[in-house]
Automatic annotation (TrEMBL):
GO cellular component: cytosol
Family of the protein in this entry: Belongs to the class-I aminoacyl-tRNA synthetase family.
Residues noted as binding L-tryptophan in the record, renumbered to the chain: D189
Broad EC category: ligase
Main localization of the protein described in the UniProt heading: cytoplasm
EC number(s) recorded for this UniProt protein: 6.1.1.2
UniProt keyword annotations, A-Z: Aminoacyl-tRNA synthetase, ATP-binding, Cytoplasm, Ligase, Nucleotide-binding, Protein biosynthesis
Gene Ontology biological process: tryptophanyl-tRNA aminoacylation
Descriptive protein name: Tryptophan--tRNA ligase
Placement of sequence motif 'HIGH' region: 15-23
Chain sites annotated for binding ATP: Q14, A15, S16, G22, N23, G201, E202, D203, I240, K249, M250, S251, K252, S253
InterPro entries: aa-tRNA-synth_Ic, Rossmann-like_a/b/a_fold, Trp-tRNA-ligase, Trp-tRNA-ligase_bac-type, Trp-tRNA_synthetase
Length: 385
């Protein structure tokens, strides 16, 4: 176990099946490296997973699968507290309390919420624009009774704005409160353990900033309680891009499985996917993210999987072809992933031990969380039980 003086780090992953090398490089690998330095809490965010419609059986399988993957990648239950979010009821308890001090506007402006709820146009806030247009229309009528054209044009603008607002209202009605309150639960996940650091992917920075804001609000209102943790973002590899489209993030929900290399992909699959991965024009193997996004992405993947700095790779492949580079990259992936896959297989055959790890982890997490909740309940004024 970690010593008492170690700093604390917390992170969660939303298990949605088929974890890929983007997850490995951007998150899991970092967790494994951090577990000697920090006292770590790592959990599978199953309560976050249900903010979008889920298949219950699949959710169970994916939750367990994420744990197998984490353990196979080297997360060590002796060093890190590994657990399932929903096994520690304090997450929802603190989440609720944080909801009561969170302005609705802060939740509504979250990028992930707007994306998922499909209300990214901000058109509800176009009401002012609508009023301006209406005024312009009447002025136009007053001024130039004859100019039908001008009035018609304004009317088209009004109709467009109105239909955008209508669409947004409809989507808003369909959206769930769970999706909206995703960030308060995440803030609770973090603040419960009073961490110094939260290793997250770049896309979660806004949520972390939100957690810091809620911590400040709580402290201001009820007295110093929570630390404001800092984000730990990996400089390189925080964002691995799709193999078939290096402009977009690698994603398990991509339309084609050629977009990603799954941690459990077979050797043949890995070789095939690397072979057909998109490359850039020219033939130099150089890290130029702007002009050579595809090759730069492959360089980062290579660098991270083989632990060779990018400049070293550039030197090694100076004057070599894309094909040679790709063939070696596929080798490096196979070498890095096969021990993980062997360990994964062994773990799935020993699910009893894994469940025991999770029970242990939940026990430890609940102990830590109970301490925080004791203080929080008192500060908020909830009667002791
Ligand atoms: N929202 C995170 C993601 O999608 C997962 C997550 C949930 C998380 N709770 C967290 C990450 C707390 C860090 C800390 O990746």
């Amino acid at each position: 176990m970690a010593g008492p003086n170690k700093q604390i780090a917390v992170s969660g992953i939303q298990a949605s099946g088929n974890l890929h090398i983007g997850n490995y490089i951007g998150a899991i690998k970092q967790f494994v490296e951090l577990q000697d330095k920090y006292k770590m809490f790592v959990f599978v965010a199953d309560l976050h997973a249900i903010t979008v419609p889920q298949d219950p059986e699949k959710l169970q399988a994916q939750t367990l699968d994420a744990v197998y993957t984490y353990l196979a990648c080297g997360l060590d239950p002796e060093k890190t507290t590994i657990f399932i979010q929903s096994h520690v009821p304090q997450h929802t308890e603190l989440g609720w309390i944080l909801n009561t001090i969170t302005p609705l506007g802060e939740l509504e402006r979250m990028t992930q919420f707007k994306d998922k709820a499909k209300i990214d146009k901000n058109s509800l806030f176009d009401l002012e624009q609508l009023i301006r247009l209406e005024n312009a229309k009447y002025k136009a009528i007053e001024r130039s009774e004859g100019s039908i054209k001008e009035i018609k044009e304004i009317k088209i603008d009004i109709t467009t704005t109105l239909s955008e607002i209508l669409e947004e209202l409809k989507n808003r009605g369909r959206t769930t409160a769970g999706l909206l309150n995703y960030p308060t639960l995440m803030a609770a996940d973090i603040l419960l353990y009073n961490p110094d650091a939260v290793p997250v992917g770049e896309d979660q920075l806004q949520h972390l900033e939100f957690a810091r804001m809620v911590a400040r609000k709580f402290n201001t209102r009820f007295g110093e309680t929570f630390k404001e943790p800092k984000a730990l973002i990996q400089k390189e590899g925080a964002r691995i891009m799709g193999l078939d489209d290096p402009i977009k993030k690698m994603s398990k929900s991509a339309t084609s499985a050629n977009n990603y290399i799954g941690i459990l992909d077979s050797e043949e699959e890995i070789r095939r996917k690397i072979k057909i991965a998109v490359t850039d024009s020219g033939k130099e193997i150089k890290f130029y993210p702007k002009t050579k996004p595809a090759i730069s992405n492959l360089l980062i993947i290579f660098s991270q999987m083989a632990d060779i700095p990018v400049p070293g790779l550039e030197k090694k492949y100076a004057g070599k072809t894309y094909a040679e580079f790709k063939s070696d990259l596929a080798d490096a992936l196979v070498v890095a992933l096969s021990p993980i896959q062997i360990k994964y297989k062994a773990l799935t055959k020993d699910s009893e031990s894994v469940l025991k790890i999770l029970r242990n982890g939940a026990d430890r997490a609940r102990d830590a969380a109970a301490l925080t909740m004791h203080a929080v309940r008192q500060k908020v004024g909830l009667l002791a039980h």
